[in-house]
Specification:
12 helices, alpha/beta, binds magnesium ion, binds adenosine-5'-triphosphate
Length: 275
């Protein structure tokens, strides 16, 4: 029995920004490097990918059967090959969506309290009932965005939704950064969303290679740039220190921070439209 289970929702508004990838890798890093018991849950029931990304295709009971009221949630937990990491997948079958009640998500997820140190919820994109149910089931929320205006506007909306629901915002994860001039910088995003950017994960082909190998990138290539950033973020969540920061990445992040916010990329009136 774990005395304090943290339930962290990973959401974005905009689709395809890296939520599932982050949930898998944070889960793997927290379990393998920081000795945490972790359960990752596929709350994207209409378009589930969590199991697929890890090569898990066949499971008799999924979150769908739980939401249909047919099974208890503890029957839908499966071990992954990394000790300490367990997964609750959602069904790949369209038939298993019939009658699914996402409003029941919070009730079932809360039953996991005490069975892990950290539970990571892989949220659906958009602002529909599915993602709202995921935020409602979360105590804390991590926002994922890529460094461009449209996903950042969706992050502001997610932040507002989380605030209304009463889930505590942890911070923003800026994913797939390429450090191009056209990208928003972390301090520009922080000004707009009024939340700290706690991680900047580069666009890294190792992430795509790891997907093809059905492995977390931190396993596939632990020395890759993406893996190192994910490890730092996992350390942050675990409240521990992680020292693997090369001289050049420190210099480059100082350079990225030093530029003035650029008005051509940020229109502060946009924010009022998100209410
Ligand atoms: N840092 C990265 N570098 C390169 N590719 C990445 C990175 N992060 C994610 N990707 C790739 O981007 C694609 C989308 O990632 P992912 O499925 O995790 O996004 P998502 O937010 O969960 O999408 P959805 O909203 O559809 O659930 C995947 O092909 C993934 O491998
Ligand atoms: Mg996803």
């Amino acid at each position: 029995m774990f005395s304090l289970t943290r339930i962290i929702g990973v959401i974005s508004g905009k689709g395809g920004v890296g939520k599932t990838t982050l949930v898998i890798n944070l889960g793997a890093a927290l379990a393998s490097k920081f000795n945490k018991d972790v359960i990752i849950v596929d709350c994207n029931v209409t378009s589930s990918h969590l199991g697929l990304y890890l090569g898990m295709y066949y499971y008799p009971i999924s979150l769908n059967q739980v939401l249909l009221g047919e099974e208890r949630i503890d029957k839908a937990i499966y071990n992954y090959s990394i000790p300490g990491l367990r997964i609750i997948p959602a069904s790949l079958s369209l038939n298993d969506l019939k009658g699914v009640d996402v409003a029941e998500m919070k009730k079932h997820i809360k039953q996991l309290f005490g069975s892990a140190d950290i539970i990571l919820l892989d949220g659906a994109p958009g602002f529909g009932r599915e993602v709202m149910a995921c935020i409602q089931a979360s105590d804390e929320v991590l926002f994922v965005t890529t460094p461009y205006v449209p996903p950042m506007i969706d992050t502001i909306k997610c932040f507002n939704a989380a605030n209304e629901i009463g889930a505590k915002p942890i911070g923003i994860v800026l994913n797939m950064c390429k450090e191009g001039r056209h990208e928003l910088l972390s301090h520009e995003i922080e000004q707009m969303v009024e939340l700290p950017v706690i991680s900047q994960i580069p666009r890294d082909k190792n992430v795509l290679k790891s997907l093809a190998s059905k492995l977390p990138v931190i396993d596939y290539n632990p020395r890759s740039k993406a893996s190192r950033e994910i490890m730092k973020l996992a350390a942050h969540l675990a409240g521990e220190e992680y020292k693997h920061d090369g001289f050049f990445s420190r210099i480059s992040s100082m350079f990225r921070k030093s530029r003035e916010p650029r008005k051509e990329l940020l229109d502060f009136k946009l924010k009022s439209l998100t209410k």
